[in-house]
Amino acid sequence: MHALNPRGFMPEVTLHPLASRVPDLNDKVVYLITQKAEGSEMEKVFAMAREELLKRFPKVNIVFKYKPSAYMTDDPALWNEMVKNAQAFIYGAAPSASTTHWVVTWTAGLEKRGLPGVVILYDACADTAKTTSEVMGVPIRWATVSYPPNKMSNEQKTKVMENVVKGIILQPTEREKQVGKYTPLKPPRIALEGTYEEIQDYFYKQGWTDGLPIIPPTEEKVKEMLKGTNHAPDKMVATTMWPEKWHVNVEKVAINGIMAGCKPGYMPILLATAEAWSKGHFASSVRSTNSFSYMQVVNGPIRKEINMNAGTYALGPGNHANATIGRALRLFIVNLGGGKTEVNILGTQGNPSAYTFCLPENEEMSPWEPFSVDQGFKPGESAVTIFSGGWCHAGNYLAGDLEKLAKAMRGFEFPNGIVALLSPKAARLQASKGKSKKDVEEFIWKNATLPLKEFRKDTYYSWFIEPILKGKEMYGQKYVWPKEYLTLPENAEVPVYPRIYINVVVVGAETTPMMQGWKMAYPSTISVDKWR
């Protein structure tokens, strides 16, 4: 049998040359930039860099700064300051794949503006730097250190610092001066002709599966799958498929849906899922050395049309649509977005809910409007939402006690958002007390609190939260936490979550008023009906 190729298309890349270098840094300004990150130890590496620079250029003026905003957030004020004042810079990355990606991204932007720089990163993240540099079209220079840096030998330290200095003073090579366009070759349409076993083995060895057996995407199966949508096979679905911003058309979505075991009737959800993924804030989480997963929530008539399970064991195995649609997202990340374990997917431990985490809301048994309505859709419209998070979970609250749920979730690190999953009985219990869904969200927000002193001890407080309190944007929003948190006394009891990122979804059976809460934030919701 012939198996079609599941891989998306790498976009055309515009090549940019490196900025011209200044060989003598005496009487010049060099910025050392890094991100506040607990355990990063980049400050120790910068101490070595400072010593090396002063040894070679005694009159160099070194300016150290922490990036005053979250690592994934653009900071035009800082970039303008650097371009105006500096003649070179060194950007240090935390031992984190997502941080490394963004450090290379911002470095590429500065190189394009004519400011020469070099990145210091941890060796485990070198592949992330390489793929990001290629997508940006800028041949970024970097030097790698091992973690922890103080364990490196003197010989290793000397070599690293030599590479750092060379990176900011040696003029670009001919290769580093290249301009123009680079168009990567498109993958062949036929991946392999072989037996069922040969296709399984080949796809697995190529890294195109999730480790489980797949359904071979033959020409016949793809034609059948495409009957699930009226859109042409070559219609573009996404042009920024994370993590590598690949291009994806309808046929490629169908191929990966087949591999996951999906049926033609699922195609509108699969296409909406691909679009939601490409338009959501997932560029950092998908790469992260933290172990993210993604929750898909389906609303509207499509749930019934394809027999999704919103009742007993809705989050568990057993239902074909729930399981395969959730599985398809993982294959999208790998094959349509260019994700690869140990290259740009570096979750330290991984996450079992990354295999499949798809649920339909139990709208029929809910006393409230569907979640999709909260997201701006009309009742009766079908939509799919993707949330990012998934490494913290509190559950098994059988008495419908919202206060217990809220208190359990207040200890989640970096409390950026939660999805509270209420069974229908739990939701109706709250409704019987006169609470709307917004009232429930408000209650959770007001009761998931900590003394400000404890809140500031969160690992990510200085990294993410404090910059937002000071007015830096995160995903286009300011002050999602109240800026008053900067001045309130340490014993003040404060909500730890941004109010806008507390969401309630009704799912499950009538058995008990069970509830659970997941660390999930940044919903990206797309119409399913548009892809029918």
Number of domains: 2
Largest sheet: 6 strands, mixed
Topology, number of strands: 19
Task: Give the low-pLDDT segments.
Answer: none
CA(first)-CA(last) distance = 29 Å
Mean pLDDT: 96
**Alpha-beta classification:** alpha/beta
Major sheet: arrangement of strands:
13-12-14-19-15-18
Strand percentage lies at: 15-25%
Shape: globular
Rg over CA atoms, rounded to whole Å, is: 25 Å
**Quaternary assembly:** single chain
Helix content: 25-40%
Number of helices: 17
Structure, described:
It is a single chain. This protein has 532 residues and is of the alpha/beta class. It folds into two domains: 17-177, Flavodoxin domain (Rossmann fold); 190-448 and 496-531, no CATH class. Helix content is 33%, strand content 20%. The chain has 17 helices and 19 strands. It has helices at residues 42-56, 76-85, 97-112, 126-136, 154-169, 196-205, 219-226, 250-260, 267-279, 302-305, 320-336, 371-374, 402-409, 424-432, 437-447, 452-455, 461-469, and strands at residues 2-4, 13-15, 29-34, 61-66, 88-92, 117-122, 142-145, 180-182, 190-193, 236-241, 246-249, 293-299, 358-360, 383-397, 418-422, 449-451, 493-495, 502-506, 515-527. A six-stranded mixed beta sheet has the order 13-12-14-19-15-18. A five-stranded parallel beta sheet has the order 4-3-5-6-7, sandwiched between helices. The longest helix is centred in the middle third of the chain and has 17 residues, at 320-336. The chain is globular, with a radius of gyration of 25 Å.
